[in-house]
Design a protein that fits this description.
This protein is mainly alpha-helical. It has a domain at 59-123. It contains nine helices and three strands; from the N terminus they run H-H-H-H-E-H-H-E-E-H-H-H. The chain has helices spanning 2-24, 29-38, 46-122, 131-152, 157-164, 168-180, 199-212, 217-227, 234-262, and strands at 154-156, 186-188, 193-196. The protein has a three-stranded antiparallel sheet. The longest helix is centred in the first third of the chain and has 77 residues, at 46-122. Belongs to the DDRGK1 family.
Length: 263
């Protein structure tokens, strides 16, 4: 508070000094000519008056040009000051944006690492290996999990639990995290099923609602059944059959091996 009063006092003293300087300044050439022309005691001839009038006009033009130059200089300084403020604001906002992007990237990397650790705990790695090998094992198993859902479109949680040797709760948690990270999309129902819905199918339903406006529940259900594929495609059915065949062959080989050991 004391510093502010001191600054104000200095500013007032400066203004007073400036006012005193203006009072002490001698009259300029234009003012001198005007004084001569307006002096009732001056005994000027007609020729002298004309000469002074011409000089007065000339000085008046010079004064006007000087004021114009000063005004232009003032405008230029104000424009430079304004541009400097804009540039400083732009730099500040750019630095702020870069800082936000850096923090966001760090948070995403941290989240990805935490996600990886969670998945790694869920998937039991049968053989110990390097971190790189474990990472590849994790990604392969995760991709198998995603493809298992995508090609079937509709899966029971208990079927997923049996397929990947996990509890139903772990399956639900895993699907939820995959949806949060955008690796898979769909909906769950209260009967223990997950329905895989592609982003294109979501967009198609959204476009229908946007075009129709108010839509009844029955109309929306009918349109969803038309727009959202609920059964595997022909090529996906072939993959499922091949998976079942490979699983059966694996079981048969294991059975034969056990019988040979017993014999």
């Amino acid at each position: 508070m004391a510093q502010r009063l001191q600054r104000n006092r200095r500013r007032e003293d400066s203004d007073d000094d400036q006012g005193e300087e203006e009072k002490q300044q001698p009259p300029n050439q234009l003012e001198l000519i005007e004084q001569q022309l307006n002096d009732p005691d001056a005994k000027l001839t007609k020729k002298e008056i004309q000469k002074l009038q011409k000089k007065h006009e000339k000085e008046k033009m010079k004064d006007a040009m000087k004021q114009q130059r000063e005004a232009e200089q003032q405008r230029r300084l104000e424009q430079e000051h304004k541009e400097e403020e804009i540039e400083n604001k732009r730099k500040f906002e750019e630095e702020l944006k870069l800082e936000e992007e850096r923090k966001k990237k760090e948070e995403e990397e941290k989240k990805e690492q935490e996600e990886y650790n969670k998945w790694k705990e869920m998937f039991a790695v049968e053989e110990a290996g390097t971190n790189e090998e474990e990472g590849e094992e994790y990604e392969n198993k995760l991709q198998q999990f995603i493809e298992f859902i995508e090609i079937r479109k509709v899966v029971l949680f208990e079927d997923l639990a049996a397929e990947f040797s996990l509890s139903t709760k772990d399956i639900i948690d895993r699907i939820q995290r995959l949806m949060e990270t955008g690796r898979i999309s769909g909906i769950t129902d209260d009967r223990g099923k997950f329905i895989h819905i592609t982003q294109q199918e979501f967009d198609a339903v959204a476009r229908y609602i946007k075009i129709k406006g108010r839509v009844s529940k029955s109309d929306l259900q009918t349109e969803c059944n038309r727009l959202v594929r609920m059964q595997p495609r022909a090529e996906d059915r072939a993959k499922i059959q091949q998976e079942q065949k490979n699983l059966l062959e694996k079981v048969e080989k294991q059975f034969i091996k056990e019988e040979e050991v017993k014999a």
